[in-house]
Design brief:
alpha/beta, TIM Barrel, about 35% helix, globular
Length: about 300
């Protein structure tokens, strides 16, 4: 610690004469002694002692990292539930026997609206579909790109109207952008304008994305065989109404109608938080069954 000296006021003048001289000598001697003492004190308080300088700085505490328990590899039945098919979705649905690699001429030429929950195929493939579009996660886009996943995106128009580039990038690996209605109104709700939900989306997506959808996924999977739904779908250019038979929930739980994952299964996801985790999980479950994701567009 450095000792700061304060400036003092002017010294009192001594008397003239010998007494003044003696007094002056005494004052001078006192000042010299005071200066030497101040120097010694200042040196003692500002410089570390030899003992203090020799004391080593304590070494940093070394923390041994604890072993991390690896996340278990999912199995074919991991978090899976055998979910019964909703009766409204099961009535008169079809599989497409022509579904093999490369969209068949029969399916391509057909103007009839077909409803399907899965694809009947001998190819070791399954299909990834993602709904809505409320979240546009860069992590999902990067994961899809890194794994070259063919994604069929069933989009809701109000959620994606300002995000053209993102969804084009997500579907750039053999996928496509398809119709999931304007505002997600249930087609079985009497207050839903089914024609507007289907046909307005067709027109807007053709302008926004440059292609007109030809697949439709009804919101909530409701009313796929309703005569009004089939009528407006066909009138506005839809010839496939695509449901699903495997669901990956927003909590990345896998629900099956008939586990494990099988060839031709159509898997439903939603654009939400943590979607990349669910995608990684379903890819691993597919690998365990010898399956890889393929373009739904090539099979129906």
């Amino acid at each position: 610690m450095r000792v700061e000296r304060q400036e003092r006021g002017p010294r009192a003048r001594g008397r003239r004469g010998g007494g003044g001289a003696v007094l002056g000598l005494l004052v001078a001697a006192a000042l010299v002694l005071s200066g030497v003492t101040g120097y010694v004190v200042g040196a003692a308080t500002s410089a570390p002692s030899a003992a203090a300088a020799a004391t080593p700085t304590p070494a940093a505490t070394i923390v041994t990292p604890q072993p991390v328990t690896p996340t278990p590899t999912p199995t074919a039945t991991d978090a899976g539930t055998n979910v019964p098919l909703d009766p409204d979705m099961a009535v008169d649905t079809e599989t497409l026997a022509e579904g093999q690699a490369g969209r068949s001429d029969v399916n391509l030429a057909s103007d009839d609206v077909q409803v399907l929950n899965w694809v009947e195929t001998d190819d070791p493939v399954f299909f990834i579909t993602i709904d809505d579009g409320l979240k546009q996660s860069p992590a999902v886009r990067d994961f899809v790109a890194a794994n070259q996943i063919p994604v069929t995106a069933f989009l809701t128009e109000f959620a994606v109207r300002n995000h053209t580039e993102y969804f084009q990038e997500v579907t750039a690996y053999g996928g496509s952008i398809q119709n999931h209605s304007m505002v997600h109104g249930a087609f079985t709700d009497p207050e839903t304008d089914v024609q507007w939900e289907i046909c307005e989306t067709q027109d807007r997506f053709e302008v926004q994305f440059g292609t007109r959808p030809w697949m439709l996924r009804p919101p909530y999977g409701a009313g796929p065989n309703d005569p009004q739904v089939l009528q407006y779908a066909q009138e506005c250019g839809i010839n496939r109404i695509v449901l699903w038979n495997v669901l990956v929930t927003d909590q990345n739980q896998v629900e099956y109608w008939d586990p494990p994952l099988r060839a031709g299964d159509i898997v439903l996801f939603h654009f939400g938080d943590g979607l990349e985790v669910g995608l990684e999980k379903i890819l691993e479950l597919g690998r365990q069954q010898g399956l890889t994701p393929a373009s739904l567009e090539d099979y129906i």
